[in-house]
Amino acid sequence: MKVDVILGLQWGDEGKGKIVDALAPAYDIIARFQGGPNAGHTIIFNERKFVLHTVPSGIFRREITNVIGNGVVLDPVIFCKEIDAVVDAGFNPVDNLIISGNCHLIMPSHRLLDAISEAAMGDRKIGSTLKGIGPTYTDKYARKGLRAGAVALPDFETQYQIRKEQHFDYIRLTGADTSQFRFDGLSFDEYEKLWFEAIAKLKKFRIVATEVFLNNALKEGKRVLSEGAQGTLLDIDFGSYPFVTSSNTTTGGVCTGLGIAPQHVGKVFGIFKAYCTRVGNGPFPTELNNDMGELIRKNGNEFGSTTGRPRRTGWLDLPALRYAIMINGVTDLVMTKADVLTGLETIQLCNAYKCADKEYSMPELVIENSCEPINQSMKGWSEDISKVDSIDSLPLEMKQYLNFIEMEVGVVVSCVSTGPDRNQIIKI
Ligand code: GDP
Ligand code: IMO
Ligand code: MG
Predict the structure, then answer these.
(1) How far does residue 420's CA lie from ligand 1's centre (Å)?
(2) Ligand 1, from 50, 337, 424: best to mutate by most atoms within 8 Å of Cβ?
(3) What is the full per-residue pLDDT of the chain (428 aa) written as tens digits?
């Protein structure tokens, strides 16, 4: 069997959680391959809303095994909060969740380092979610990280203290005043206490060699779906560097983040919003700093699932989409949130960039703010699509919008999401 992939083609928040949850019944296993609690994946069913950060979006399907892969970074405190919410909803994640022993733990001092680094950057800051993602991956690649498999070792606390001391040695050099930083309203010491309590809870989960589990499952004919976090334009290599996250959010990350060989990768579902959003700093060529941008933010409820920050909004960016499709080998597109555009008389989309008098149908090197979008207008639609359940019943103008995108990027849209609920989905 193959591993199918779901990942974001823009700057995150494309609706990956919703789509993973909606497509999950066709799979036996859902596996997260990168990122950490910087992600916020929203799932809505039976009028209940959940925002998952570390836990894969198949957790609400008891028959599905959920895997936190080696490429993920895990904050035990945030993980336990998510688990509590899942348990409160009547599920028992200890039964259907396994964690890679090789996934790296986010320590309280990683969060402190993240906060200090961002504060020191002033205007040039990344706009990080401040969850300690960058410093944890930095330690991973510097071969100094603390992994989930270590929690069972007798010297775990010593290993933790050694790393914490190294972090504080560095912090002292920066001269930063650590007392000003809070973590979800808590002081460092309070957060650290909670962290060790969470480690005790983490030990109740099966911490295993998930790469062996997954490869055996494939041999047995199990169907695996891997769930990406963030989006292609936040990829450490292919995103709008340095305004990116610290992992490979793209299909290549599936192989290294789960231990899956490239020949096992099957379909790649690329999720995109019918427009664009971005939270945090960095270039955004189609950004709308005007009433239209505000209207899209309001209608789309574009506020961060993890941090609550208002998301920047703009028109759909086809050059960036073509690039994301190329990098990921997307086989199927999934369009979300077109319902947010309902009622607009005209919709614009960017089909090329103009940079230094040259036109580009795809970004080369990095996306720059100096890239001027060349926009095209299309007629909008006014019909409510939130209850439409077949492609034929969609408004003509929306079908034209869809067809235009498919033709321009050369990949078919195989799914359209018509609202946030699990059931608001049209499979084509
Ligand atoms: P993710 O990080 O990619 O999983 O996306 P988020 O959950 O951060 O953000 C997507 C937001 O849009 C959430 O509030 C979802 O409930 C919502 N959503 C997902 N699909 C749709 C859709 O088709 N229409 C509307 N209106 N909302 C959607
Ligand atoms: P999901 O999975 C949107 C952004 C941050 C910041 C940059 C670096 O919900 O789509 P980091 O915390 O990784 O150091 O932040 O990346 N970012 C996201 N934006 N959705 C996400 O995840 C994001 N995860 C990180 O806002 O600009
Ligand atoms: Mg999100």
Answers:
(1) 6
(2) 337
(3) 899 999 999 999 999 999 999 999 999 999 999 999 999 999 999 999 999 999 999 999 999 999 999 999 999 999 999 999 999 999 999 999 999 999 999 999 999 999 999 999 988 999 999 999 999 999 999 999 999 999 999 999 999 999 999 999 999 999 999 888 899 889 999 999 999 999 999 999 999 999 999 999 999 999 999 999 999 999 999 999 999 999 999 999 999 999 999 999 999 999 999 999 999 999 999 999 999 999 999 999 999 877 888 999 999 999 999 999 999 999 999 999 999 999 999 999 999 998 888 888 988 765 666 788 999 999 999 999 999 999 999 999 999 999 999 999 999 999 999 999 999 999 98
Q: Whose CA is nearest to atom 17 of ligand 1?
A: 420
Q: What is the dihedral of CA 316, 320, 326, 330, to 10 degrees?
A: -30
The ligand 2 atom at the shortest distance from the C-alpha of residue 131 is 12
Q: Which residues line ligand 2 (CB under 6 A)?
A: 8, 11-13, 38-41, 126-129, 131, 133-134, 229-231, 234, 245, 279-280, 305
The model carries a pTM of: 0.97
Ligand nearest to the CA of 126: 2
Token match 């019909």: residue?
Answer: 383
Rounded distance from Cα 366 to ligand 3 centre (Å): 23
Both tokens of residue 364? 């080369």
Per-position DSSP letters for 177-199, written without gaps between them? -GGG--BTTB-HHHHHHHHHHHH
CA of 99 to the centre of ligand 3 (A): 21
Q: How far apart are the first and last CA of the chain?
A: 23
Residues acting as catalytic residues: 13, 41
CB within 8 Å of 406: residues ≥ 6 apart: 333, 412, 413
What ligand is nearest to the CA atom of residue 125?
2
Q: Which residues pair with 277 in a beta bridge?
A: 313
Q: Which ligand is nearest to the CA of 57?
A: 1
